[in-house]
Amino acid sequence: MYRLIADANLCSGCRICELVCSFHHYQEFNPSLGRIRIEINRGIKPDTRTDQIDVPHVCQQCSPALCAEACSVEAIYWDPQYQLLRIDKELCIGCGLCEEHCPHDMIRMVNDGQLAQKCDMCLGEPQCVSFCPRDALQLDK
Amino acid sequence: MNGYCGSIIRVDLTNGSVNEDPLSLNQAKAFIGGRGLSISHLFKELPPSVDPLGKENRVYIFSGPICGTAIPYSSRYTLVTKSPLTKTYTRTLSGGQFSAALKYAGYDGLIIEGKAQQPCYLVLEGNQAKLLDASHLWGMTSRITEDWLRRNHPGFESLCIGPAGEKGVAFACVLNNWGRAAGRGGVGAVLGSKNLKAICVSGKNGVQVAKKETFLSTLKDVYKQVNAHPQIQERIRVGTTMTVKATHETGIIPIRNYSGRPLAGAENLYSDVFRKQLVVHDESCFSCPLPCGKMSVVRSGKYKGAVVQGPQFETIGMLGSNCGITDLNIVAFANSLCNDYGLDTIETGNVIAFAMECYERGFLTSQDTGGIAFNFGNQDALIHAIEAIGTQTGIGKLLALGAAGAAKEIGQNSDTFAMATKGQGFASFDPRALVGMGLIYATAPTGANHSTGPTFGGEKPLGLTAHDGKPQLVMDNQNNYCFLDSLVMCAFSRYGLDNSLRLRLLEDVTGLKYDLDQITNRIFTLERLFNLREGFGRAHDSLPWRSRNEPMPSGPAQGSTVKIDRMLDEYYALRGWDSKGVPTKSCLKRYGLEEQLQELQQMGLSLAD
Fold first, then answer.
1. Cβ of A53 and B287 within 8 Å?
2. A-chain residues within 8 Å CB-CB of B70?
3. Chain segment B245-288, per-residue pLDDT in tens
4. Which residue of B69, B220, B290 is in closest CB contact with A19?
5. Which of A15, A32, A130 sits opposite B287 (nearest CB)?
6. Class of A1-58+119-141 per CATH?
7. What does the alpha-carbon distance between residue A68 and residue A64 come to, in Å, rounded to a whole number?
8. Which terminal residue of chain B has fewer beta carbons within 10 Å of its beta carbon, N or C?
9. For residue B506, what are the contacts with CB-CB under 8 A and spacing of at least 6?
10. What are the structural domains, with CATH classification, of chain B?
11. Domain A61-118 belongs to what topology?
């Protein structure tokens, strides 16, 4: 199974991952479409832990996966070829249940909310990993 | 449009009206974005002699065509207005997340006009603009304001002013992202005079790119080049503080109000101490692979627990060595205090050092300073002065004028050591040890401002205290920064990018063609015309007496002074300006400024052919 691993101690919050994710999948730069999300908490206190300042959130490819379990039309399936959970565009009805149930806020509703999308690890060569200037993201095979 | 959003939003605070101007293709090609588009609007829209703190003044907040993309270093925005500190054109920039957010909201730029009746803040979301009551935020520090805005407008990016901006301090700044400052020129005071406390933006529009097919692979090569830059790792480790040692060893960093006398313990301000003593986290601006931002925590001493993003090189020079302070804990706390009040750390350090020299000469007494000995190196004096300026109490009222303004009140020839040009203080470079910087200070359209064309790198091969070759270097740097400030791209893009790559990226994004030589000269000349129209000329392109006549007392630059007149003659000629510093008719025609030429002639200004 493939998984993205993020190290919040290394992340500096540049959000380049969100940008290249959106460009790779939609040919535009738009972080709101990014299937990876950087949480930025820079209003720190003297004792704030450094892994709580710039925090990457990535799809965990959960097993069991709450998004897949919530899906009423079984559009979220395990792809054995790429070893990850994917969304079948033809089956998805845009109900948004997966988005509601994802504990990591990793589902993006696109096409005016008609289609759910999630990280597909760029089918083997995640752009976020390849662009991250801090090596804060890794692909765990 | 590609790159551009194609729209500029205009908010009139007087009546709450909101309008959108389409961005014309010709305007985009002639001025790129950011600083360029701002001056093209400012020159057209702001009549001469407007009171900078009156309702007629306007503020131009612009992003650039590459902002919001994954191009490295592309996260900055510009603020342009007429400055209350200098009464000239001013431009200041900041990084963080605001610029990209403005693009995603659908706007290349935002123009603020008029004056609100009551304290308010502006919320831009998608294509909607709302003015909301900010009475409860008035008087709040920038930190509290940003925290409140983030809690109440989650997902929005914001900029705001602190109490100093509300009170009209002529060098009040604008802050965003917990300590990124658009520092210089008093734009914070202009927003304050309009009763505008903050601006929040959010949107879900994407930025489009012309060369879609190849853009990601182009970017991959660019990032490779950035990561391979030999100095980038050190820059990431210590940010701008690497310059402290380099400028101290060359006598450039200002010491005790640019007197140049040696400062024992200055090594305690160096980058290794900074990293070890203060830094807890490296932070990037949006889309930046070089996290020069340093989250710092003061871990010991009187100000234990203070948190600040920084202090950066300029702040260490200005609030540190220039005030005779060699303790980074104190500088960090002073920086944090300036941010809270919304004060430019450069101008604040400049004027406090001036006050300290006045005190040591007996021009100010402890009666003026609230009973505190204002000697160089007195930490309590530094902190007291910042609080007094921020709250506009005691000596703070005098200091809020800046060094040049305060010198007028104090008299006694104190202007000889008021280290400013056109009323704006020098930054953290003593021009006697970095002579080209003297010409930058003298000719910057904003008043003294190092960031309009920093010369430290370029002057080394020419000789730091030499005069030959400096006018050409200064002109080239100034034009280069017109380009960077219009993209809008950070100065640190020199870590991996040069102008041909910047231009290629710009053209790949927008699909347009740009003539850089024309555009950058056009922008700089137009800024000059704005100031000319306000009554500025050669007499104002000057340096204070100390820089010109008091030889550097010691160190590597010992004996050096700045021969500004000689450099000005050569510089004006290079620019195509006459000996009074007025652009000639042929110069204006060459850069497509015929319309502006006509206007100046109608005003009765005579220009040489």
1. no
2. 16, 19-20, 23, 29, 131
3. 999 999 999 999 999 999 999 999 999 999 999 999 999 999 99
4. B69
5. A15
6. alpha beta
7. 8
8. C
9. B3, B32, B65, B66, B487, B514
10. 7-202 (3.60.9.10), 568-602 (no CATH)
11. Alpha-Beta Plaits (3.30.70)
